[in-house]
Amino acid sequence: MPTYLSPGVYVEEVPSGSAPIAGVGTSTAGFIGVIPAPTAPAASTAPPAAGSNLAVKAGEVKLCTNFGEFKKFFWDFSKETPKNILAHAVYGFFNNGGTRCFVVWVAAEADIAKALESFEAIDEIAIVAAPGVTSQTGLTPVKDHCQKLGDRFAILDSPETVDMSSPTLVSTLMLFNSDYAAMYLPWITVFDPDSNKEMNVPPSGHMAGIYARVDTQRGVHKAPANETVMGAVGLKYNISKAQQDGLNPQGINCIRSLNGNIRVWGARTLGGDANGEFKYINVRRLFNFLRESIDEGTQWAVFEPNSPELWAKIRRNVTAFLMTVWRSGALFGTAPEQAFFVKCDEETNPPEVRDAGQVVTVIGVAVVKPAEFVIFRISQWAGPGGS
Fold it and tell me: What is the pTM of this model?
């Protein structure tokens, strides 16, 4: 309390008691390129000459906000396939709507886990991909990384060559189940400026850009599907509806040529129906967004007196944030009380909880699910007065 010693008028600034929760970013990607010897660029410690390309050392993470920065730090399109795959992935990311990505290269798949440790410290990353890596050994650490941190999502590539007619195709592609990852089939065909001809590249970089584009235009709650893949001129395999019927329930997302356009035609996490309420990519990513936003936006509450005043502040701030999310169309319901609830009171914080130094808030949200199957039932009608 301030001390007043002489008569007069005193004007004081009083905290509003409101600490708005800001939504975290959802579209920054982290790319890991595997560049085995002898194509791995030599380590360089000397300053680069003016206008030259500096190939950064293995394991060194660089932020790129456009493809020109990637070329400055790493390399341009290359005749060496592993380097070219990473270049096309980053180019596809920016070409499809991405704006920020962190890039690192390693010499072997066994080093991916070490690169992911570097990504852990970068809270901004929300999407992780290792373009061209298709083995269980290489992809499992990526999936585990996203699941452990709980604030990012993995985009996985299927193998370049598969037997589309094989009865074991699904089991070949299904390396594991994870509602923190999505897999895309097949590889896409793009024009390669270095060879001046077409080549097949893994779709993960382009898909990360589509995620970013949809997040910006519609929001993270919108499924990143029924979207055109910019830069794609064809596909390694043309997948039919009948073929997709066997893949979609398992969460293998297909990229298809429809009416002359190369479009993303799947929006499921890897495992599909087996992932229950998190079988859709946008539902998982929306929950990641909500959890991380609330986590970062309520750090002020740590060490505050655990009293009804604190509970009221938490309810007020979380409710205001969820109101914004609901108004964006991310939550189901025509009124806020249908879309979410926030409970932080004596019932959620009895004496034993307070004695343990905890304050517990229970939040429920009604998430909008994608209209994956649009069904029109048509029948003949005789018209007014008909028999």
Answer: 0.91
